[in-house]
Here is the input.
Amino acid sequence: MRRHSILYTSIFILLAGTVAAQDTKPPENTVSSEIEVVRPYKPILAEAVKLRRSPDLDNLKAYKAKFSYAPIERKLELNTDIQKLQAQKLAEQAPTALTNNYLKIGLGNFTTLNAEGYIATGKDEALQSGLFFKHFSQSGSLNKQNENSQQISAFGRSIGEKNTLNGRLNWQRHGLYFYGFNPDNPDANPNPENQTLNLIEIEGEIAKRFSDDDNALRYATKANFYLFNDRFNAKENLLSISAYLNKKINTFNTGLNAAIEMGSSKDSLTSVSNHLIRLNPYILLEPAGIKITAGVQLVQEFGDNTNTRIFPAITADFTLIPDYLQLFAEVKGDVNRNSLKNLSDENPFLNSNILIKNSVEKLTISGGIKGTGGPGFGYKARFYSKKITDMPLFVNNYYHFNKFDVIYDFGDTQLTGLEGEISVQVSDNLKWTGRLNIEDYKPASEQQSYFKPGLKVSSNLLYTINKKLSFHADVLIQDDSKAKTYIMMPQPAPYPLLPYYVNEGIVNVKGFVDLGAGATYKINNKFAAFLTINNLLNTKYSQYLYYRVNGFNAFGGINYSF
Here is the structure.
């Protein structure tokens, strides 16, 4: 009972105090605040259950996994060779349009007209054919200083399994006037005569294709026939056939070069039959770094004149530094067949009834160096000495100063010369070539070797700025030469063997510098514009006495490729 009384009394006191607190009002001017006391949280962890026994280190029983397998029976292969890689196929590309054909036309001062074209078959290398044509005409400032030339040439080529066939048909025409002008006598040639030189030529060749077999027989043969005539009565024909054989026997090669030339020249007062047979048997030795060809040159002249001549034919090449430095030397002799065509190609202002005879190179000795100095650089330098019998020379005719006769330096002319060539290609956009010739003539009977300059320099530069614009420049330098004139009427013979100095005079023909330049601008893939300038220095020089060339001249036009 006592315990219950205490409990009830406590509950009553607690309730009474609560009611009293609610009814009591806080006094005015007091601050009421609530204070919350927070203590740092201190977690209490239960004591960890500890293992009261140590691990058994003596238990060494291994775990054995259970598995099953079945061996595969397979043959062991040894594959130590390099396996062939499978090439990745490239995506198909559209075929490139060929532009190996072109048409070109240009106009310029001196009423210059230039037209040319080239048309060929497609890209089949085994069968090719084409056609080339060209026309050029120009009229200078002198009386009848007119010149024109035309050419049409067709060719064909077939490459078979064993042989290669080549053929060519050519027609050329060269029209001009004997416009020779003498400043000391301006009225000496009031009505220059017209001259026309015509050539028809056909050529064929068969050759064995290249073979890697060193023991294979190598051969080639070539035939050429032409008809040549001028506006007057000069006519000439020539049939030439040449052949080549080579066969390797043991450690050396043996071979034969053979040729026959059968030709005749006719004019109103002259008629010459001039034939040649050449035989050149040789042996070729090629030890390490050395190449020696030893043989003889047998030449038989027949026709109006008959002679048999034997000359040495020896060449040697020594490689000191492969591709960079090579020495070469040559000892040879030959008979040079002079013809109306060859003489007219050199000087088209020939007189009628020209005397035709052969010249003989009794002995020619030459040697030099050649090689490369790296990619894009090549060079060659050669020294030579020749002894020439009956060397042909041009002289102005006494009665017609504007026409040239051909005389022969009776005896042995000694010629010593030095020539050099350099080719430099810096890149695909820049290329330069240069050539130098220095010659010294010691005539046999004549006072001078007429129209034979002692120095000739030629150079060519090609520069491509970009895909559309390119330039080129050319220069030709020639030293002074000498010309022969007659002071009095010569001896009453068409071509005296020995000169008569009393009747002769020597005239100096000044040297010259001829500078040319040009540019090509590619408009698109089909059309291009070009400009060519000749004789930039406007030098009115003469290559032959009384025949002054045109001064500054330029022509330009359009080139169409398809």
Observations:
- The helical segments are 2-23, 340-346.
- The two ends are 136 Å apart (CA to CA).
